[in-house]
Design goal:
single chain; mainly alpha; 12 helices; about 75% helix
């Protein structure tokens, strides 16, 4: 691993490269916050994908891409005389120090749970912090992650189940209500009840310390692997999926599951 001096030198090198590209490269020169934003979202998702796969080589690569975007936005801020990368780093350091009084002050927090309980109250005290408990949840978050964060923030101020086992009654209640509306074929109410059911399931996952977004992504990847096996087999035998019966596809699906179990 590199020394602290080598790390600082590497960060300075990245800033030097960006400074030069901003002047000499036609593409970099024309970028704005708005034009970079879609690329930043894409790079963030690529990093998330690498993290889910525990692909260390790509994690390093994608972290570099995300870091480059952070530095690029800071450079644009510097050009407008709004802020620069030093301001970004110092503000973040100040915020971390303020939010960790159990490390930098006299507060006591011996567990991660205690730290989280203090977190929201500390943020509400910040000069430019959240005005309400839920105001810190970004509106643009994907729905599953947003629901989880909403529930976490509510928990941090004491709004939560006393006994996590009670959540299953709520899950079953929401499922019954969803099924009732589906039977009536009322799409609007069914959609409403589906949302309530999903919110309850996410709440259950949180209470049992499971991340629903990660869990669903693992299932997505599992489905992709198994469906790809079915499709590849259909190509090998020269029989398109559209000409296969459901029974034939199910048989291949079970083969894919068996192969995965053998590998595990």
């Amino acid at each position: 691993m590199h020394t602290r001096e080598e790390k600082l030198e590497a960060f300075g090198r990245l800033l030097d490269v960006l400074d030069r590209l901003r002047v000499e490269c036609p593409w970099d020169r024309k970028q704005t916050n708005e034009s970079l934003r879609p690329n930043t979202i894409e790079e963030t998702f690529e990093l998330c994908d690498a993290l889910m796969k525990d692909d260390k080589q790509n994690i390093c690569k994608e972290l570099g891409d995300v870091l480059m975007h952070v530095c690029f936005y800071a450079l644009i801020g510097q050009e407008k005389s709004d802020f620069d990368i030093a301001d970004v780093c110092n503000k973040q350091a100040d915020k971390l120090i303020f939010r960790h009084p159990h490390v930098y002050g006299k507060e006591k927090a011996d567990t991660a749970e205690k730290v989280l309980q203090n977190w929201e109250q500390i943020k509400l005290k910040e000069k430019d912090g959240n005005k309400t408990v839920l105001s810190g949840v970004p509106t643009a978050l994907p729905s599953i992650i947003k629901a989880y964060r909403i529930q976490e923030k509510a928990r941090n101020v004491g709004f939560d189940w006393d006994d996590r086992r009670d959540v299953w009654k709520k899950v079953r209640e929401e499922l019954d209500e969803l099924e009732a509306e589906l039977e009536k074929e009322d799409k609007a109410k069914s959609s409403h009840e589906l949302g309530d059911f999903l919110f309850a399931v996410i709440n259950a996952a949180r209470l049992y310390h499971l991340n629903p977004d990660n869990a669903l992504e693992h299932t997505n990847q599992k489905f992709i692997r198994r469906f790809n096996y079915v499709e590849q087999h259909s190509i090998r035998i020269g029989k398109p999926l559209t000409e296969m019966t459901l029974q034939e596809m199910d048989q291949l699906w079970e083969e894919a599951k068996s192969l995965e179990n053998e590998q595990d």
